[in-house]
Amino acid sequence: MKVLIKLGVISSALFFMLARNVDLIRIEQPDEDDFKYMQRTIDYTLSIGKCLEQPFGASIVRKRTGEVLCYGVNTVSQSPTWHGETKAIENCAAIYPDQGNNVTFWKELTLYTTGEPCPMCSAAILWSHIGRLVISTPMEVFAKSGFEHIPLRYTQVAEHANTEHSANLVVVEGVLSEITDPWFSWQFDPKGKCPHGCHKEGSKCIETSDAEEPKKPQIPDNIKLEL
User: Residues of the signal sequence (predicted)?
Assistant: First the structure.
C-alpha cells in the first residue's frame, strides 16, 4: 500500500510538472514583422540554393532594433548536427562571443525557421533561452514526404524541460508556409514537382540557369551573419 501511495504521489507530481511546462509555451498569432523576417529567411535560404535537398534555413532577429543578427542553413554534409537552427545559434554565438550565457541577450531574440525544428534543434533553442520561435512548414508536411526525422515536436521536447528553459517561449506557426511547403515535396517522390527555378534531371532537381534570380537578403556590410 505504501508503495502504491508513493507511486501515486510521484505520478501526480510528474503530471503537474509536465502540464505546467506545456502551459509555459504560448502559441500566438504572427505580427506584420513576422512575415517580413520570414521572407528574409526564405530569401537567404534561396540565395544558398533554389533546389536544396535539405531546405532548412533559419535566422535570428532582434526585433526591438530590427536587426537580423545571423543566419544558418542545413549543412549536414559538413557536420551531422548542423541543422539550420543550430547553425544559426552557433553563428550568433561566434559573432557575439561575450553573450554566451547571457540569458537577457538571448531572451529578446526571435528565431525564424523554414521548417519546424527537430528535437535536437528544439532542445538547442530551449538551452539558448531564445524567447520566440516562428515556424513556416510544420513537421507533419516533411514527415509525410519521407524526410528522415525523429517524430517529437517542439512541444513534446519542452514538456520534459524544466521551467528555467521552457518558461514563456512564444511560438508562431505557419508563417509563409504556402511558399516553403513545396520545398519539401519532391525529394522522395520520383514524380514530385521541383521548386520554382529548378527542373528535374533524373531523381534530382537542378537549378535552371535562365530562372529569375531570387531576391538577396539585405545584409549590412559591417555585420558578419555567417561564419
Answer: 1-19
